[in-house]
Amino acid sequence: MSPTKAVPKIASLQANEERLMTILLAPVVSEKATQIADRHNQVIFRVRPDATKKDVKRAVELLWKEKKIEVASVQIVNVHGKKKRFGAFTGRRRNWKKAYVSLKPGQEINFAQEA
Description:
Elements: H1 9-20, E1 24-27, H2 31-40, E2 42-47, H3 53-63, E3 71-79, E4 83-86, E5 89-92, E6 96-103, H4 111-114
Antiparallel strand pairs: 1-2, 2-6, 3-6, 4-5
């Protein structure tokens, strides 16, 4: 039996919070995103490629904990990069990931007021 090192819980929680702060990259602000926000009480974020649903939920609740935002559910979509041409050269944009975050009734995140 090899002795295992016990990692202090405080250090692991701080590392986890630091990682959660990097999960959400940017809100997706578009006409479609605005319509979805109005109809379904959802907010769309661009997230890291390695993000999971649980990570996104914890990150949103951590970033807006002073407003007591609660997440009802999260759906994640992998967006494939477009093929682009520049003259004779062809290339591709990067693949990215976006998350549809459903908020509980009566809650909203307004990016216009926070800016």
